[in-house]
Amino acid sequence: MTPKRKAKFERTVAHRQFDLTVILENVHDHHNIGAVLRSCDSVGIHEIFVLYNEPQLQKEYLELGKRTTAGTRKWLDVHYYTDTEACFSAVRERYDHIYATHLSRSAKSLYDLDLTRRVALMFGNEMLGLSDEAMQHADGNFIIPQMGMAESLNISVACAVSLYEAYRQRELDGAYDPVDLEQPRRAALLEKYFALHESGSNRGKIRRKGSKK
Amino acid sequence: MTPKRKAKFERTVAHRQFDLTVILENVHDHHNIGAVLRSCDSVGIHEIFVLYNEPQLQKEYLELGKRTTAGTRKWLDVHYYTDTEACFSAVRERYDHIYATHLSRSAKSLYDLDLTRRVALMFGNEMLGLSDEAMQHADGNFIIPQMGMAESLNISVACAVSLYEAYRQRELDGAYDPVDLEQPRRAALLEKYFALHESGSNRGKIRRKGSKK
Fold first, then answer.
1. For B110-144, what is each residue's pLDDT tens digit?
2. Would the pLDDT of B203 be above 60?
3. Global pTM?
4. Which of A3, A169, B39, B117 is most buried by its number of CB atoms within 10 A?
5. Are B34 and B72 in contact (CB under 8 A)?
6. Residues in Cβ contact with B74 at an 8 Å cutoff, skipping those fewer than 6 apart
7. Nearest residue on chain B to A39, judged by CA atoms?
8. Would A213 be classed as within a structural domain?
9. Mutate to test the interface with A, among B45, B151, B161 (most CBs of A within 10 A)
10. How many domains does chain B have?
11. Domain span at residue A59?
12. Alpha carbon of B174 to those of A51, B56, B68, B116, B178: distances in Å?
């Protein structure tokens, strides 16, 4: 591993926000999921929850499950669920506030949320939005203000705007200040990233030697 | 026109920010341009500048020029240029500060910019970024902080995050407070939107009567 690569892993682990996450319910477009993962990584999120409780969409879930982790996905834990209760139980273990984006309910502005707390932000299906079942688990509902003719933003855009407001608030709050990388949780994550890097390099070598593609 | 529709036009015109714009240089993916237009509309931008100074991309420009305005594009003026100098002369007539996103130059954080001023934000080609020619017109360079393994954000995501930071600053600064819709500039824009709406309704009627598609 080059010193530059090692420093990048250390910087990434130092900036990981263990108290911020995203829940996606029945988001089916893989491009949207990819863009969400990239935004998550960029603000320091280390795990997200992907829930498919809509039977029609569960084939997507299975397909996703089969794919090997690649690109950004490699550096985030993506937890897949088909059971709504199991998903929210897992979220509640680590996050205190779940905020939803649901257009038809009374909602606060994104900019009035305190995103320095232990927060999960929840986004729904591209067409249907969030289900009533998921909304029952929400502690609050927020909107991204819309000043023009368009009624809503694409989910990957809405997610990025929300996450970067979290970044802005947290940066002011010191959440990206230097930390001790020997804290057990960060040390374990760094070790995991090193191992992923090594196995990736080995896979690359094997591929170059024998594989057809 | 329904009272609801009329109120929406009035609200949109009241929120239009005549001192905020976007310049896109050689952005070739139509989905990206579409997403950028939607974000622009959502924060109140009323015009953007689309520059194709790369000969290889000018066919895209011609294609775009041929398309009829539809969707969000209808509510924004999109100014197309193939000549860099002509483009920036037009921008300078109305905007004082041009901020670029260029990874390899020394840059401020987005969050350290004052976006309440007469500002144009400039984004470059998906692969190549901004040209040196365009950079010569920039008054400053900014980055969206990246805390993870990914090096950059998709252009539509980067643009939305930047524009919503402008929204946040401007909202605090009173830029979306009630205004007099009889100000000549706003009155003219409102009249234009009403006319566009009428012509759109008529086109709809003609289509329903006679056209095959």
1. 999 999 999 999 999 988 899 999 999 999 999 99
2. no
3. 0.91
4. B39
5. yes
6. A149, B196, B200
7. B153
8. no
9. B161
10. 1
11. 3-207
12. 40, 43, 35, 10, 9
pLDDT attached to residue A202: 62
Residue A113 belongs to some domain of the structure = yes
With respect to residue A52, please indicate whether it lies within any of the assigned structural domains: yes
- On whether A101 is known to bind a ligand per the annotation, the reply is yes
Nearest to B149, CA basis, from A48, A72, A18? A72
Choose among A52, A69, A68: nearest CA to A60.
Answer: A52
Q: Could you give the C-alpha distances from A18 to A7, A94, A115, A175, in angstroms and in order?
A: 20, 8, 13, 10
Amino acid at site B203 = R
Q: Nearest chain B Cα to A5, which residue? A: B149
Supply φ then ψ for residue B99, to 5 degrees.
Answer: -110, 130
- Opening angle at CA B128, ends B125 and B131, nearest 5: 80
Q: Is A57 annotated as a binding residue?
A: no
* CATH code at position A26: 3.40.1280.10
- Given a contact cutoff of 8 angstroms between Cβ atoms, the answer to whether A117 and A53 are in contact is no
Q: Which residues of A touch B (CB under 8 A)?
A: 8, 12, 15, 35, 38-44, 72, 74-75, 111, 144-150, 153-154, 156-157, 160-161, 164-165, 167-168, 171, 176
Backbone angles phi, psi at A75, to 5 degrees: -100, 10
Average pLDDT, chain B: 89
Q: Which amino acid is at A71?
A: G
Mean pLDDT, chain A, rounded, equals: 89
Residue B172 lies in a domain: yes
Residue type at A171 in one-letter notation: E
Output the pLDDT for position B209: 42
